[in-house]
Amino acid sequence: MKKIEHIGIAVKDIDASNHLFASLFGKEHYKIEDVESEGVKTSFFECGPNKIELLQATNENSPIAKFIEKKGEGIHHIAFAVDDIENEIARLTEEGFKMIHEKPKKGADNKLIAFLHPKSTNGVLIELCQDIKE
Q1: N or C: which end of the chain has fewer CB within 10 A?
Q2: How far, in Å, CA of 4 to CA of 16, rounded?
Q3: Which family, according to UniProt (predicted)?
């Protein structure tokens, strides 16, 4: 793993949250994107070398809707940048980590993604991210 790629924050209202975080960071988000496969609308902010991803559920069955219902708004996951997501999934599986996604899938912000199950990471949802090479 190279670095923290972003921190994901579950929100109920992405427009209100965009306003709040724009005020906090002193600049607007750089991208809004729907990820239909995950049932979310995302908004990305850059804060120095780091990124914050806001996630709003687009349907009641989305993982974000379930997260907010159970825990409320707040930090949802920490994403780490990797060079080769398939090798990293294999390495982590071999180390005994449980994967939610055993194969990478397309995510937001031009990334391939895969999540580790929080039961194998002390309750922290970890996302692996690899840039999609065009």
Answers
A1: C
A2: 26
A3: Belongs to the methylmalonyl-CoA epimerase family.
Q: For the chain, give the number of residues.
A: 134
DSSP label of 123: T
Q: Which two tokens stand for residue 62?
A: 């989305």
Cα–Cα distance for residue pair 65/40, rounded to 1 Å: 9
Look up residue 32 and give its two tokens: 């809004």
Torsion angle in degrees (nearest 10) through CA of 59, 64, 70, 75: -150
Measure the CA–CA gap between 28 and 108, rounded to whole angstroms: 18
- Listed in sequence order, the DSSP H helices in the chain are 14-25, 63-71, 85-94
Terminus-to-terminus CA distance in the chain, angstroms?
21
Contact between residue 79 and residue 88 where contact means Cβ atoms under 8 Å apart: no
Hey, what's the torsion of the CAs at 8, 13, 14, 19, to 10 degrees? -110
Residues of the chain under the 50 pLDDT cut:
none
User: What is the number of alpha carbons within 13 Å of residue 126 lying toward its C-beta?
Assistant: 23
Please report the pLDDT score of residue 133 as a whole number: 83
CB 92 within 8 A of CB 120: no
